[in-house]
Amino acid sequence: MHFDELLKDVTRTGTKIPSSNYEEVGLYPVIDQGKELIAGYSNLEKPIEGEKIIFGDHTRVLKYIDLDSFHIGADGVKVLENKMPEKVSTKYIYYYLSFIKIPNTGYNRHFKYLKEIVIPVPSFVMQLKLVELFDHVGKIIIKRQSQISSLDELTQSVFIEMFQDNKDSSKVSIEQVVDSIEAGWSVSGEERAKKEKEIAVLKISAVTKGYFNDKEYKVLNPNIEIKKAVYPQKGDILFSRANTRELVGASAIVPKDYRDLILPDKLWKINLRKEIITSEYFHTAINTKKVRNKFSKNATGTSGSMLNISMQKFKGVEINLPSIEKQKLFSKKFIQIQQMKQNLISSQEEVNVLYNSLLQKAFKGELFQQ
């Protein structure tokens, strides 16, 4: 069935709430186009009610919402309602839409691509079987992600415990601890697996989770002339100077040298003055809530567009600088935690491969007999 036969755009029935008006607690959750299920809360009246699918027009994020009532964020949110809930499971539709790869055209509108999708509709019993299977695998993925998040929290706890007193720390600007900052090159590429000897440009999503994901790239045309090649090398900090408000300022440490990946213009390669600051300390310091809020506050951009932080403002942000000896002690603990985290990430990637394989087989009719 065509998208328009199954789904109705009911976005206009909701009250759009700017992110600046989100509350930490409130009567109704606010759902926006970010990756988190709930972005905040609001006490405004007349919320949207019932089972819905949320689509991020800019981010391509899909969410299945089964709440009694909720509000939506002001920017780029589409609210979709099932026209035939008695014949087609809303959650089945959500899983199928999640399975389809929507082209990434940057921070532009993507709803037009979603509306082109034709959704296969098996028997209702088959739909429920598939939903049950996907729910089960999804719970495993969520569990792995929760374990990874717990290790991130452990890293922050160790950081706070070691440096919260600031007894031997001095206040410095980022400029004082950085040796050089280099931006990459703006170039388009193809979203597919890279073959041997091919060069690919990283996407900003390579750093948004706080660790370096070397699978987030676009493959360059082999005939293209590379005008600027900035390669990620072991110990470099990669910093996202442009992204949505919640993700601008994300960073990651590069674990090894890469000669087949180059940086885009929206990622900076930061070389530190290693005699006074370690990569592990700097990365953790600039990922504290306080510093990330500074990046977000200093970033500029109109509503509905990607925010950008200038190099001048980035360099002007202040952090605490403890003794190098104390930083090195923290770095040892950081590396130990990251090794545990990497094991979990590898496990999660295996589950993701299984999940994607199940989706492929399911929607080809290869899992269950009708």
Order of helices and strands: HEEEEEEEEEHHHEHEEEEEEEEHHEHEH
Tertiary shape: globular
Distance between the termini: 18 Å
Report the portion of residues in β strands: 15-25%
Poorly predicted spans = none
Rounded radius of gyration (Å): 22 Å
3D architecture notes:
InterPro entries: Restrct_endonuc_typeI_TRD, Restrct_endonuc_typeI_TRD_sf, Type-I_RS_S_subunit. Residues 7-144, 167-339 form the Type I restriction modification DNA specificity domain. It comes from Alkalicoccobacillus plakortidis. This protein is an alpha+beta fold and 370 residues long. It has three domains: 3-121, DNA methylase specificity domains (Adenine-n6-DNA-methyltransferase TaqI, Chain A, domain 2, Alpha-Beta Complex), CATH 3.90.220.20; 122-168 and 323-370, Helix Hairpins; 170-321, DNA methylase specificity domains (Adenine-n6-DNA-methyltransferase TaqI, Chain A, domain 2, Alpha-Beta Complex), CATH 3.90.220. The chain has helices at 3-6, 90-99, 111-114, 124-163, 174-177, 279-285, 289-298, 311-316, 324-363, and strands at residues 7-9, 16-17, 28-31, 40-42, 48-49, 52-56, 62-65, 69-73, 77-82, 170-173, 178-183, 200-202, 217-219, 237-240, 242-243, 251-253, 261-262, 267-272, 307-308, 318-321. The strands form six sheets. Strands 2, 3, 4, 5 and 8 form a five-stranded mixed β-sheet that branches. The protein is globular.
